[in-house]
């Protein structure tokens, strides 16, 4: 639908690890010798619905940027990198536990980010973001980092036959123990995002009521679910339960309660057609599970927290095989790898459409039984890390056979090597002789990245990055707001403030009108500015006013600009936004949104007839010079377009010329109105969902008591501003032709999920001074 954008750079001399060389002038004169390097640039179709990028798509982009075609890395379909081989380096900046919500709550504070990075996309949240970023099974060991900033584990992770250094032995000891020794403690469940009785996010969750004391003879049950993405988040579409003998007790399709956005058929195997005749709901499954599970049942699963969250159920005793087979630095093995390497079983085969939850539940159960029966020492002797490394090396070597010692798997009947897993591209970089740089905070977390101790500040991380990034082909730098600023209650407060401010910015008040004014005339006139979410008559005033909430920011701004002082329904009216504490900086925010680099060359057009198709609109607007893309927003429930569209032009001046031409146009008998875009293209879905949430329906604040910002948020503003300055310093230090990607990973927890945000660009001389 949308053509790509180009971020052009200038040619520069190649720069090596010793630092930048003197550049020649454009005509080739000046000091320094060597071949001129082609300018790299990006082309990305990121407008409207195409702006939502998955973790896998991001991984593909970074892999291609780091390795290129010569290492069999494919050019991603959603974003092209031209002249990849001439990239000076790739730098990924990760803002720990921050989401799209943080960026737009503190939009004015992120002055550098919003003015430099033209390409912006919404990122699907992940519980283990960095794991998904650089590969779940990566064996990355960054080097040359100082104490307090190192991302390597202890020396025990080096090649050694000493089992005392194995993470499994360090966690469980050498002796064989009963199953109760391997169930997660309450603290471990909290740390790994399991639903806990009494937690704020689990208020309406159902308990299995399995509260009997566990013993080493308690029965094990394997559980696995498939989920789809809905308005609510992750909802169950299929549930499987197996008993200790592997017999299937439950394998049921479940109809989601909310509208489905993505069935995730590739992974779940679930399609819309499969769920059409299904009557079973989540409450039915909850009731059946409560009846089926004995009071001392122990549930087993791989990353079981996700299944219980989707089931909205609380169970006190669990064994999580992704944690049971412990690895260093919080990393986790995939279920498919463990099933083959330990059990000799092939699961999740590529020939099948989606995963089989019964197969996965049975595999997790057998892995737990295997661990309990054999004990930690036997499992550690498998040397799973060595098998994994051997597989990756085999993959990098174009699948040449790697001879494994007989009996390297615990089951001696398994005479073939484990399957080749998808190699992490950072491991591939190390194999090719390049050393990735990983700087962050120490002490591993669920993301799999080793973080620095609490005394290591962003300032120290920045200083080390300024020194080491020029020496590395690929760098991941992680910053954080620090302890106390990422608490769930504070995040919930930020969401409430953003939602409230968005509602106010979408809302306008118009009047006064005569006592018996025509409401239809008012709705028609204001509807020409854009799609209306709700319209209500305000009767608390001496003369009637109307309160209108729009669906897009541009519509509300058009109404203020075009209809303030106009005659509507026989009255000369005033149009204004609500006057609240949060809206005092509204005009400043509107101005900055217009100047946002992502909005340059994009205009908003209202007054379209709903009968017009996208093809007809493309024909009508096709005469406009340098038109690059057209985005027609649609109602996410009905699928109907919303009588407005966004036009993207290759050049800013072409967009300004189009503005003059379109205002006053008549299309199919309807007069058009237009203005500069305010909301970046990737925000349409997010704004629509927030605008249609139950918290905002019918919410109109007529009088609001002025409130002071809390101390925590005031401090947070200062932290964010400093963070923006740190990224600015880092960006300025990069060589030209460096790809820089800034990531807000998003939040995915019991308190709810928020999408992440990605910003990217290739630095060049024309855009570096910011």
TrEMBL record:
<keyword id="KW-0175">Coiled coil</keyword>
<dbReference type="InterPro" id="IPR036397">
    <property type="entry name" value="RNaseH_sf"/>
</dbReference>
<keyword id="KW-0269">Exonuclease</keyword>
<protein>
    <submittedName>
        <fullName>RNA exonuclease 5</fullName>
    </submittedName>
</protein>
<dbReference type="InterPro" id="IPR013520">
    <property type="entry name" value="Ribonucl_H"/>
</dbReference>
<feature type="region of interest" description="Disordered">
    <location>
        <begin position="1"/>
        <end position="37"/>
    </location>
</feature>
<dbReference type="InterPro" id="IPR012677">
    <property type="entry name" value="Nucleotide-bd_a/b_plait_sf"/>
</dbReference>
<dbReference type="InterPro" id="IPR035979">
    <property type="entry name" value="RBD_domain_sf"/>
</dbReference>
<keyword id="KW-0694">RNA-binding</keyword>
<dbReference type="InterPro" id="IPR000504">
    <property type="entry name" value="RRM_dom"/>
</dbReference>
<dbReference type="InterPro" id="IPR012337">
    <property type="entry name" value="RNaseH-like_sf"/>
</dbReference>
<feature type="domain" description="RRM">
    <location>
        <begin position="601"/>
        <end position="679"/>
    </location>
</feature>
<dbReference type="GO" id="GO:0004527">
    <property type="term" value="F:exonuclease activity"/>
</dbReference>
<dbReference type="InterPro" id="IPR034922">
    <property type="entry name" value="REX1-like_exo"/>
</dbReference>
<dbReference type="GO" id="GO:0003723">
    <property type="term" value="F:RNA binding"/>
</dbReference>
<feature type="domain" description="RRM">
    <location>
        <begin position="506"/>
        <end position="580"/>
    </location>
</feature>
<keyword id="KW-0378">Hydrolase</keyword>
<dbReference type="Pfam" id="PF00076">
    <property type="entry name" value="RRM_1"/>
</dbReference>
<feature type="coiled-coil region">
    <location>
        <begin position="706"/>
        <end position="733"/>
    </location>
</feature>
<dbReference type="GO" id="GO:0005634">
    <property type="term" value="C:nucleus"/>
</dbReference>
<dbReference type="InterPro" id="IPR047021">
    <property type="entry name" value="REXO1/3/4-like"/>
</dbReference>
<keyword id="KW-0540">Nuclease</keyword>
